[in-house]
Each structure stands twice: as C-alpha cells, then as structure tokens.
Amino acid sequence: MKEYTAIVLAGSDVNDQDPLLLKAGVNNKALIRLNGKTMISYVLSAVDQSKRIEKAIVVGITKDDVDIELTKEYTFIESEGSSRTDTIFTGFKHARKTQSEEDYLIILPSDLPLINSDMIDDCIDAMNIDAGLHEGYYGVVFRDDYHRKFPHSNRSWRYLKDGVIAAGDIHAIKIRTILANEEIICNLISKRKSFVGMILKFSPLMIIRYFLKSLGFKHLVAFVRKAFKIDAVQYIIPHPEAGMDLDYLDQLPKFENYIVNNKFE
Q: What three-state secondary structure class fits 159?
C-alpha cells in the first residue's frame, strides 16, 4: 500500500470581500473558525491520521494558523499568487524539487472540514492510483449520496446519462502532467463552477449531447483525452463529505451544527 504527498490548498485573495469572510472576520477561508477550531485544522487533522498520506505541502498559510499538533512532515509555503490556480502550481513546483515528476500528488482544498482520515483513504483507494494506470483522477459524487447525508445541501448538479452528479474535491494528478499543461489546467479551473461553460469553451458539439441527456462518463474521459491530451478519468467519491466545501454564509451554522450534532440543518 503506497503513501502519497498531499497538496492542501489554503491560498486566499486578501482583497476578497466575500460575505462569508466578512462575517467570520478573516481574510482567508482556511482560517474561519468552526466550533472553536480553524477550518484548516479539521482538514489537516484528517491528513495527519490518514494511512495513505505520507506528508503534506500546505500552500497559503503558516504553521501558526493551525490549532492542532501535527505528527507528519509538513511544509508550509506562501502562494505565488491569490488565485486557486496560483496555489496549485505553487504546491506542485515545490513538490518537484524533491520528488519525481512521475509521482502523484493528492489535492485537497482547505474548506472540507467534514472529512476524516478514513474518507481520504477511501478516496485514494477508489482512484486505484497504486496501479498507475492514468495521469490523473478527478472525483464526482452522486446526488443521491449527497441527499442521504445532507438533505438540505445546495450543489451545482450535472445531469449525465450515468446519473446526477456534482464535482468532488479530492483529486490526484502526476506532477509532470500538471506542470506540462499549465494553460489547459488554468482554463479548466477557471470554468470549474460552470460545467456547461467549460464544455462550450472547448467542445460546442458536446453541448448537444449534454442537453439530450446522453452525455456519460465515457464521453467526458474521451473529451479530456482528445481536447487536452491528458489521460485523466473520473472516480466515484464514496463519501459526500469529500465534496461538501464551505462556500456561502448561510452554510456556516449548518457546518457547525453538523460538527457538533451530526445534523446538517
């Protein structure tokens, strides 16, 4: 059973006027407090106890921002910019200094406070990256799985032939792949919130298939390979917590209630 390096994305735009940040009185979402602990502390606690994570690179905060004791090897570095793309490439460029470009890195954002170590391990197992069959793995969660645990969650649903899904937030990709495709990755990330917009930008013909509800996972894999020359495949995330990122002000009391009472309401 292999262990991997994680990249934890905690970068932030200091000029962001997000109502969530204003309410919490911080300028970085990773530092929002939930039941007395910063959100990044929940994520790093899960990383620290994971059997599949050997060490982690945390981009965008310092060790002083963490409320818990850590036992693994962590490197805290500043992001080279304020965007999500800047944070990702900062982490991967740092990892390249000490690791092979053929190594996979596990990507996690800092706004997944509901995950635990078993969920991270199950996601890595579900990717089957130990076999090394593909360059990258991106997670999706079925709507029914979300609603079983989070009946009042509001996600951006994608209606595919295989079912109704939303994007997850735990992924893996080789260092070489992401650094060799910077422009493509930037475009994908910029369109990540708009599934239709991303397809329209790169493949207008896929829009027809999407609206006819005949677009399936196999078409997305073929699309990514043809359009971007990247061998990446989706995997089914077994835990909806791995897609429940804290984005909006009205979610704040629900997340705190779930942490304290295991109820998302």
A: strand
* Locus of tokens 């893996």: 172
Rounded Cα distance, 30 and 13, in Å: 12
Rounded CA gap, 13 and 19, in Å? 14
Residue type for position 192: R
Can you tell me whether residue 200 is helix, strand or coil?
helix
Give the residue from 16, 117, 125, 99 showing the smallest Cα distance to 60. 16
How many Å apart are CA 206 and CA 212, to the nearest integer?
A: 10
Q: Could you give the 3-state DSSP secondary structure of residue 240? A: helix
- pLDDT digits 0-9 by tens, 8-51: 999 876 556 788 888 888 888 999 999 999 999 999 999 999 99
**Token pair belonging to 209:** 């298939």
Give the pTM: 0.91
Residues 6 or more apart whose CB falls under 8 angstroms from that of 224 comprise 230, 232
**Longest Cα–Cα distance in the chain:** 51
pLDDT tens digits, residue range 114-147? 999 999 999 999 999 999 999 999 999 999 999 9
What residue spans of 52-203 are helical by DSSP H?
84-96, 117-127, 143-149, 175-180, 182-190, 195-202
4-261 belongs to which homologous superfamily?
A: Spore Coat Polysaccharide Biosynthesis Protein SpsA; Chain A (3.90.550.10)
pLDDT over 90 (residue 209): no
Q: Report the SS3 class of residue 186.
A: helix
Task: Please check the confidence at residue 159 and state whether its pLDDT lies above 60.
Answer: yes
The beta strands (E) that lie in 31-148 are given as 33-34, 37-38, 53-59, 73-77, 104-109, 136-142
Q: Which of 239, 241, 242, 220 lies closest to 231, judged by CA? A: 220
